[in-house]
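User: ok so my PI wants both of these folded by tonight, can you help

Assistant: No problem, let's get them done. Here's the first:
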Amino acid sequence: MIQRAASSTFFPILLVLASILGQQLGASLGATQFDRVGPQGVVLMRLLFSAVIMVAILRPSIARLGPSQWRTIIGLGITMSGMNLMIYEAFNRIPQGVAVTIEALGPLALSVIAGRRWVGALWAALAFTGIVLLGRDGFSAGGLDPVGVLFALGAAACWAGFILMNREAGRHFPGVAGLALAMCAGTAVAAPFGIATGGTELLNPWVIAVGVGIALLSSAIPYGIETHVLRLMPASTFAMLTCLSPAMAALTAFVVLGQALVWVDLVAIGCVMLACAGAVRTRPPL
């Protein structure tokens, strides 16, 4: 019975949706700790506890790593840390749903560039329309915080770099072993920033408990699910489903943080989601 359910199309789709929901719920929970440890402190907890959990489970070996493998681990760790530091700084300044929508421009740009087809211009134009709608009130008082938008764009660039580095890690390491090691490198990068903003509050038992929860929801569980479902569905289908991340971000931010978006914002998010899905659907493999 269980095997029949697991082999169906519906079951892996549910797993992917649960993974996306967990990631965005973890981000929303992280925002509740900004007043205590700051965005950078939350990132440090997320990466540190994720690294501890994944290394404890996977036990990746570093005994026989060569220079190219170390370069991959360090590069992946830097892009991972940069992506998280920037997107959490964006969360501190603009609504989570808006920030994740802008961040999605990174993978979208990769897909459009890889496609090299005229239809790529259509998806780029649709995404640009969404961004214009999000910034319809300008980037000043009453509109989106320009610094928050810049942080989200920085996170988008780091996400694109992370995708490319993760592909390289897949050539050197089995499963997500490389990702576990990269999290250790990412933790080292985030540590000075997180300690500077979080200070002794990082040792608060409640903050630690929330940090472990964020790590499980945002990293450890989703990466485990991703590894499993990619054996059950095509990578293209998985990529299409991840285009729902902005909608999930808007939903969890509304429930956890009370961040309500007006209908124009929802239309804008929908434009970017559709552009991402279209770009994934029409591009060749990277």
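One down. Here's the second:
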Amino acid sequence: MGRLKSYLWRYWRRYLLGALCLFGTATLVMWIPWWIREAVRIIEHGGPVDDITFYAVIIILAAAAQGIIRTLSRSLIFNAARDIEYDLRNDLFAHLEKLPIAYYHAQRTGDLMSRVINDISAVRVFLGPGILNLVNAPLYYIYAVALMLSMDVRMTVASLLPSPLLILAVRYFRGKVMKSSLEVQQQMSALSSHVQENLSGMHVIKAYAREESQTGQFAHLNDDYQKKSMELAGLRGMVEPFMKGISGLTVLIAIWYGGVRVIRGDLLLADIVAFIAYLNVLAWPTAAFGWVLSNVERGRAAMKRLEEIFKAEPEIVSPLASLPVPPGAIEFRDVCFTYDRRANGQAILNDINFTLPIGRTLAIVGRTGAGKSTLVQLFPRLYDRTAGEIRIAGRDIRAFSVAELRRSLGYVPQDPFLFSTSLRRNLAFGRDDVSDQEMEEAIRLARLDRDLEIFPQGLDTIVGERGVTLSGGQKQRATLARALLVKAPVLVLDDCLSSVDAETEDRILRGLRSVLKERTAVIVSHRISAVKEADEILVLDEGRIIERGTHQELLQRDGLYADLFQKQQLTEELERI
């Protein structure tokens, strides 16, 4: 909860003013029974009507004033809670943006969404109504008990005899409500994850006719959620009646014990009226203890889940004194990489060495699973090398800020991703100042211009979530155009035309030659035809470079590269038949 204290400190003035308003409200509320007592005394002794009128007016004014001050206190505290919710959600999202790709491999999107939305809302309820009642209830009790003691000690003690049960109830229910709240929130995350995965993979579900199976899984998760929610509701249902029972018991004792003493002449009727009024005032805070307990524990459980995200530290940290990324050769020196370095996992890349001079094109080929995509993801530091050095212009890439390094790269991933917005905004995602002429040129180079003619609204066509309205080839060409618009000095193409037919790929690559002359380029492809013109070709196998050279040199060596080339030629000939 230490992090939460820092957020509370930002708005301590509002909380302090809110607490002062609560004190003012409590003062007015607590004096009303006292004035009622004085009015009853006047009635008992047959006093003047003007005196009764005087107290009636005071009570009305006090009730109106406390209503105004109560509204102000709620406004101060609730608005502060809303602002903390706003800050917390922004900070959490910003932190999520800084976490490495590896973090998301171990998380479920639905669970993260549930934490960002539901858990933060639970924290806000705790910081708003929860804190208000945490301050209000003890304040009412202290004020009321002090005034009751000033009237009659024995009557006060007798009336509050059931109060220790309140403390025992809080201690008993607190842990149970906390545990149950955490289980409900975790089950909600599981439910959210299932819905998110199903909506994202709906085409697969329908293709395999698994609607009934997925509906059954959802029903099972929903059933678990309902059971856990009912358990929590049952606990809450036990707490509130118990608290109200304690409140009713105090009033019952006051009426019985006070009535006996009034009959004996040991206590004035005005006093017992005041006592009952005070106990009625305390009835709401007593009953609210159950609600407060539930929301406090739910807020604590939610904050615990949020802390799990905040404690996840970015593995890739930018240096404090960052250098601009200069143009220059890219060097890999004895680079190794493993995904699970803590568990001494199997190395994906071993002893990778090469130099890519500025303005040259490097191609990387190999069998599926050879480590090609992993290698190029080390360029923008989507993953960080486990050992060795990666240098640009003689400087270790760790000397540059991650943002500057990535701005110097136009990276096109193997799996194209488009946002659920217009095609225009997707293409201009990497820059804020793209001209129409630049947009047209990038579209032409990516061979997307003919497709654009059939889109209903051209560049303003909404492509849907993950570009669902586009074909695989169209999505890949759109992401290529996006990278070209960045105009970065280094262009990294990670098998980004795998869904495009060989003829279209050849046209795109021929069109890119003029662009590649001005840039350093890295091309990963499963098609040998796409890399024949590269200045150097690296052949990867099981994470190691086993061959390197130009297209002709590698064919003459009659190794893996030549074998891949021959198989692809045979496949193309069979397709022509």
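Residues 361 and 535 are 5 Å apart (CA to CA). The beta strands are 330-337, 349-356, 361-366, 387-392, 395-396, 409-412, 490-494, 520-524, 536-541, 544-549. Good luck tonight!
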